[in-house]
Amino acid sequence: MNDLAFSFRNSIRMQRHLKFLLDNGSIYKVNNGYLLYHGCIPMNEDGTLHYSTINGKKYAGRAMLEAYNHIIRVASYAPRHTELRKNSLDLMWYLWCGTHSPLSGKYKIATFERYFIADDTAGKEEKDPYYTWIEQETTAIRILEEFGADPVHGKIITGHVPVKAGESPVKANGRVINIDGGMNERLNSVTGGCGYIGAHVVHALHQAGEKVVVVDDLSYGKPTRIEGSRLYGMDIAAPGAGERLAEILDAEGVDSVIHFAARKQVGESVEKPLWYYQQNINGMLNVLTGMTQSKNAKKLVFSSSAATYGVPPVDVVPEDVVPMLPINPYGQTKLFGEWMARACEQPFGIRFCALRYFNVAGCGPVELEDPAILNLIPMLFNRLKQGKAPAIFGDDYPTPDGTCVRDYIHVVDLAVGHIKALRHRSDRGVFIYNLGTGVGYSVFDIIRTFERVNGITIPYTVTARRPGDIAEYYADPAKALRELGWKAERGLEDMCRSAWHFIQGTL
After folding, report:
1. DSSP summary character for residue 466
2. What's the order of all strands across the beta sheet hosting 430-435?
3. Is 355 in contact with 368 (CB distance < 8 Å)?
4. Distances in Å between the alpha carbon of 189 and those of 112, 168, 304, 498?
5. How many domains does the chain have?
6. By the 8 A CB rule, do 493 and 447 touch?
7. Model's pTM, two decimal places?
8. Is 130 a catalytic residue?
9. Which of the following is catalytic: 34, 309, 330, 433?
C-alpha cells in the first residue's frame, strides 16, 4: 500500500496530467450557449436551489460551483501541511461522497453494499432532488439562466448518472442530454429508408454502428433493403401521419430524422403538379409536426435537390446563389420544404440541415441499386436489358455536344454525406449544403464512359426534350468540404461500373 501511495504521489506523468486538468479544466463550462457539468446542481425537495455552507459562507447554484472550483485548486497548489490545504482536502473528500455535493449528486455512496451484500435494498443510493426536477424543461431553463447560458436555444450537457437500457438520454423536452452511458448507439429515423438513396444511407448508418428505425409506405422501396431495421409501414403524406410519427419517435427513443420520403421525378411533377404538392409538402408538414410533438427528435436532415436552383445564373452553383426560382413542381416542393423546416428552427428548436443533391447514380451493395428507370443511368441499363436502344431527351441544348450537362454523384458518397451531416456539431441553426462533385458531364459523356469501362457498345435514339429540364449546371461543393469535411471520392467510372454489375446480376 505504501508503495502504491508513493507511486501515485510521485508519478511525473500523473502530475503532468493533473496540472493540465487544473490549468485548463473547470467544474462547469458555458460554451456556445450550452452548459456543461458533471453531476448536478444541488436542489431542495421543492425544486429551489440548495445552499451549502463553505468556509462559513452560504453558496448555491453557480456561486457554489465557483467556490468549489477555487477549493479544488487550493487543495492542489497550497503548501503542504498548512491548515488551508488540509481544510481544502477535507472539502475535496466531501465533493466525492458528501450530501448535496454537485459532483456526487447522492445522499449515500453504496458501492460496497452493491458488490458484497445480496440484499438489493442495502445498495440503494438516494439521489439529490435535482434528478427529479431536471426532467422538467422549466427547471433546465432556470439552470441555464443561473449560469448565464442561452435559455432559448441552449442545452445542458451532463453526466454521472448512467442511462438505463431503453431510456432516452435526452430529457426535459430536449433541453438536457446525459452523456454518461446510453449514447454509444444513436437512434435515427429514416423516412423512405427502403428506397434507393434511403437504403444506402440506412446501410451506411449500420456500418457506422448506429441504430435505425425506418418509416416507408413501400410504394417504391423494398423492405429487404433495410438490414433488420425496425420498419413502420406508413404514408408520411397521409392525414394524421404527423401525430403517428411523433408516437413512433418517442416510443423508439429517436433523436434524429432523415427525411427522404417524397416523389422525385421532374417530368412526372410537370404532368401531375397538384399531386406532387400534396405528396411532398404534406409529407414535410407531417415530419415537422411529428418532430415538434416529439420529446427528443430535434435534428432533421432533409433530402433536398439541386432542382431548387431552377435555371441558375452560373454554371457552377453555390448554395447562396440568387435568384432561386425552381422551374418545375418537384424543385418547388423541395425549396418549400426547406422554408418550412427553416421556420421551425426558432419556435421549436429544430436543428435543420438540407442536402441539395445533384444527379445520383451508382451502387454500393448490389441489392440496393436504383430500380427507378426514369433516372438516366438506370434507364440506360433497363433499356439494354430489354434489348432496346436507350432514349436521349434532346440533343439541341446550348452545350458542347447538345445534351444536358449534370453533376453526377455516387450514391455511396452521398450516403457518407448524410453521416457527416448527422454528426455536424451545430447547437442551432439552419445549414444548407451541395452534395456533388463540382464536375459536369453530358449525357453523351455518360454513354461513352459506360461503353469504355464495361467493354460494350450502346445504341441510342434521340427524342424530344423532357419538360422541366435545363441545359447545364453542376455543384460548387466547397462549403460541404469546409464545414462537414465531406467531398466526393468516386468518379463517373465507378458509378457506371457498379451499376452495370447490378444489371449483369439480373440478366
Report:
1. P
2. 230-233, 211-216, 187-191, 256-259, 299-305, 351-357, 430-435
3. no
4. 41, 15, 17, 27
5. 2
6. no
7. 0.63
8. no
9. 330
